[in-house]
Amino acid sequence: MKIVVPIMPKSLAEIVEFDVAQYAAADLIEWRVDFMPVADLNQAAQEIKAQFPNHEILFTYRTEDKAETLISADDYAALVQQFSTEFAYIDVEILKFPSIILPENAVVSYHDFTQIPQNLPEILSKMVESRATTVKFAAMPQKQSDVLRLMTETLRFSEAHPDVTLVSMAMGELGKITRVASDSFGSSWTFASVAGASAPGQLTLEEMVKFRELL
Ligand SMILES: O=C1C[C@@](O)(C(=O)O)C[C@@H](O)[C@@H]1O
């Protein structure tokens, strides 16, 4: 299972301050672009690539965790088009922005910060219809059985689509088990933090590495 570590710089100045050595055990860096002014993204992209020359980078502009809309659909599509060629992977909220032209390195994603929706299988099916090779799903369980449901659907989906890389996780305290063990049920990436979590329930990179060694 690949360990993905998010970085969430709020300014250009923060990028040069990263203690890059702390990220060495990460398989992939996720740049959470949505914390930074859009006007600074070009320069930030170059500086981030220079800071992490040995890592593949996932470019993510997350809108689904925000109440207000900070970016128009056209601007979102323009960002995807511009930055998809600059990074190894690019996150695309395909169900929220359905008219987008999907780049080959797209990681189509869906987030629900309140629940694990009952129509999870349908959401996964819709995402795979986009023909993306990587499908990511993160949602918030309210009870233990929600976590089991996510694991069951992860297994079902991964068996039905062996050619697709599935990334799934349950967030929060209840979901932690999915972050360390869901590769047993067909999920291929897990997210862990170095300088602050980008979602509830993430373990630190150090904890994750220890867990993975034990498992
Ligand atoms: O899609 C995900 C997964 C995530 O939401 C998590 O729960 O670890 C964290 C986000 O930064 C990332 O874009």
Automatic annotation (TrEMBL):
Its EC number is 4.2.1.10. The active site is at residues 111, 136. 3-dehydroquinate binds at residues 30-32, 62, 179, 198, 202. The gene is aroD. Keywords: Amino-acid biosynthesis, Aromatic amino acid biosynthesis, Lyase, Schiff base. It comes from Pseudolactococcus reticulitermitis. GO terms for biological process: 3,4-dihydroxybenzoate biosynthetic process; amino acid biosynthetic process; aromatic amino acid family biosynthetic process; chorismate biosynthetic process. SUPFAM superfamilies: Aldolase. The keyword Membrane does not apply. It catalyses: 3-dehydroquinate = 3-dehydroshikimate + H2O. Pfam families: DHquinase_I (PF01487). This is 3-dehydroquinate dehydratase. GO terms for molecular function: 3-dehydroquinate dehydratase activity. Belongs to the type-I 3-dehydroquinase family. Homodimer. It is an enzyme of class 4 (lyase). HAMAP family: AroD. The keyword Amino-acid biosynthesis applies. Pathway: Metabolic intermediate biosynthesis; chorismate biosynthesis; chorismate from D-erythrose 4-phosphate and phosphoenolpyruvate: step 3/7. Involved in the third step of the chorismate pathway, which leads to the biosynthesis of aromatic amino acids. Catalyzes the cis-dehydration of 3-dehydroquinate (DHQ) and introduces the first double bond of the aromatic ring to yield 3-dehydroshikimate.
